[in-house]
Design goal:
Elements lengths: L1 E7 L11 H6 L1 H14 L3 H7 L2 H4 L2 H22 L2 E8 L3 H8 L5 H19 L4 E7 L3 H12 L5 E8 L2 E7 H13 L3 E4 L12 H11 L10 E3 L13 H8 L4 E2 H9 L5 E4 L5 H8 L6 E3 L3 H11 L5 H14 L7 H23 L7 H18 L3 H12 L15
Parallel strand pairs: 1-2, 1-9, 2-7, 4-8, 9-10
Antiparallel strand pairs: 3-5, 3-6, 4-5
Helix pairs in contact: 2-5, 2-7, 5-6, 5-7, 7-10, 8-9, 10-11, 15-16, 16-17
Length: about 425
């Protein structure tokens, strides 16, 4: 099973109709969008799939759309392929997608928070003229020094994203940003104007942070099941109690993506996968020197390579084979032969029978049949007197390869 680190993009990765293709192909993905409609009481699905670029790029819309797309893509991918998540990192807004996929934040709470976050930031952006620019071919220290000098004159400008050693994004009051850019381009810097007019991740977003703090303070956030890297520090969250506070501070603090990528480099993973629209964070991973095979789930050629060379599909036969292997490997603590024949041999033969059936049939394992396998295994556990902690671990490992509906289809869009 492949060990995978997942990256989630933030605002700027959006495009018209994103997510529509996978929503049409996979029922569980459509349920994610339906949940957003129900929770928010508005037609978010329509906005994501039918809005023009002007409507979609409004911060209040972009954030919920990109968030839902990332969660949906991860759901579809993890349901269909054998992979082992090692950790998640989300760029800015993407941190919410990461926390949901790491089972730290429940989907409904995250939907509410992301929608509010986007609305608060949209309101702030309308209060004064601002600008965002990416700078390349200039040292980080030079950028920091010039931002500080201009801000000391009274018009704030600061670094919003430390994206890579050769890409730093600045933002602030438009006149201040223009002044910094003018000075740095004379020193050889290249500029790329970002299509965002909100001073993200600077002190100018303080009012958004204050409002967001009131929204998140009563939300339950669990310790992530897998590592999640915080934008604020570039390191994994250590305590669940820190997450709410750091998500608030993230709004007014720069994204430490360089440090995040350095941490990913230190991990022993087989794959890095960009989960979300476009391939922006895949490119940033490459720019930060990630040598691990890195792919973007939304790019057809990448998905073809992933599914042909790296990821094995979850199938009915592999699930039943693993269940049979589980039975054989379990230590037996029961010396009663009659009980063993009734409670182990018979259930084992039933699973074998199911495997033979599915090897010669094209239909898929239903939820009822999965439950039957689990019931048979429970009988075997009871008969072999397997310790409770071992039962739980074995079932968790088995369910990682449990086939989902339509598992014979892949994520490649036509």
């Amino acid at each position: 099973m492949q060990k995978v680190f997942f990256l989630m993009p933030g605002q700027g990765a959006q495009y018209v109709e994103m997510g529509k293709d996978i929503c049409e192909k996979y029922p569980e993905v459509e349920r994610i969008y339906d949940t957003a409609n129900r929770v928010l009481g508005e037609d978010i699905k329509r906005m994501c799939f039918e809005a023009d670029i002007d409507e979609l790029t409004r911060t209040e819309n972009t954030q919920i759309a990109v968030f839902l797309n990332s969660v949906a893509m991860y759901k579809a991918l993890s349901n269909r392929y054998n992979l082992e998540p090692v950790g998640f990192a989300g760029h800015s807004l993407g941190e919410f997608s990461a926390l949901v996929c790491a089972e730290s934040l429940d989907l409904e709470s995250a939907i509410r928070l992301v929608r509010k976050r986007g609305q608060f930031m949209q309101e702030t952006s309308e209060q004064f003229p601002s600008k965002m620019v990416a700078l390349r071919n200039i040292s980080v220290q030079e950028i920091e020094n010039h931002c500080r000098m201009i801000s000391e004159k009274g018009s704030h400008v600061a670094i919003a994203n430390y994206n890579s050693p050769n890409q730093v994004v600045i933002t602030g009051y438009k006149n201040a940003v223009d002044e910094v850019v003018e000075k740095l381009t004379k020193l050889g810097a290249d500029e790329i104007v970002v299509n965002v007019k909100t001073p993200f991740h600077t002190e100018l977003m303080q009012s958004s942070a204050d409002q967001f703090m009131k929204e998140i303070e009563n939300v339950e956030i669990k310790h992530p099941k897998y590592e999640v890297i915080a934008n604020l520090t570039g390191e994994p969250y250590l305590k669940s109690d820190d997450i709410s506070d750091m998500l608030v501070k993230q709004i007014i603090s720069p994204v430490k993506w360089i440090q995040t990528m350095e941490y990913v480099k230190s991990l022993n993973v087989d794959l890095v996968i960009d989960i979300g629209p476009k391939d922006i964070v895949k490119k940033l991973a490459k720019q930060n020197g990630i040598k691990t095979p890195t792919f973007a789930a939304s790019v057809n050629d990448d998905m073809k390579t992933l599914t042909q060379k790296f990821l094995s599909p979850k199938t009915v036969v592999s699930f039943l084979s693993k269940a049979l292997g589980l039975v054989v490997s379990l230590k037996n603590y029961n010396d009663n032969i009659e009980e063993y024949n009734e409670g182990v041999v018979k259930p084992y033969k039933r699973i074998e029978e199911m495997k033979r059936t599915f090897q010669n049939q094209s239909y898929e394992l239903s939820e009822m049949e999965v439950n039957e396998v689990l019931s048979l295994l429970n009988t075997i556990f009871e008969t072999k007197k397997t310790p409770l902690h071992e039962r739980e671990k074995r079932i968790q490992d088995l369910m990682k390869v449990a086939p989902s509906p339509q598992e014979n289809k892949d994520l490649i869009t036509q």
